[in-house]
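Appendix B. Chain record.
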Amino acid sequence: MNKEKQQTLVERYEAVKKTLDTGWKGLITDVTEKTNTEYFRKEGIYGEKNGISVSVKCNSPDGETFDNWFSEPTDARGITKSNLFAFEKRYGSLPVKGIEVDVVLDENGFFKIVI
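Structure tokens predicted for this chain:
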């Protein structure tokens, strides 16, 4: 590998590494009420739960689209510990179409909304 190609590889690697640290922006394109069974295509260990599926178009280099699922809190104590509550606290509202969100890759290489 010549020095010019190696430099390009190093530059690309550093650019991707920086993006992993800072993340991307995404735009919510759809919000749909679903059960966990509909979303994950299998029943959860705690049975059927209601929630919402949030579709996001990421401004990453390839413009990927991904979904996140948020379970619906079942009681007052669960609200403040829920991902929906954390989402509302960070973005000022519950997930709705058109909201811009922060996006990162998780430890398994999947996109997720920062909450």
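Further analysis of this model is presented in Appendix C.
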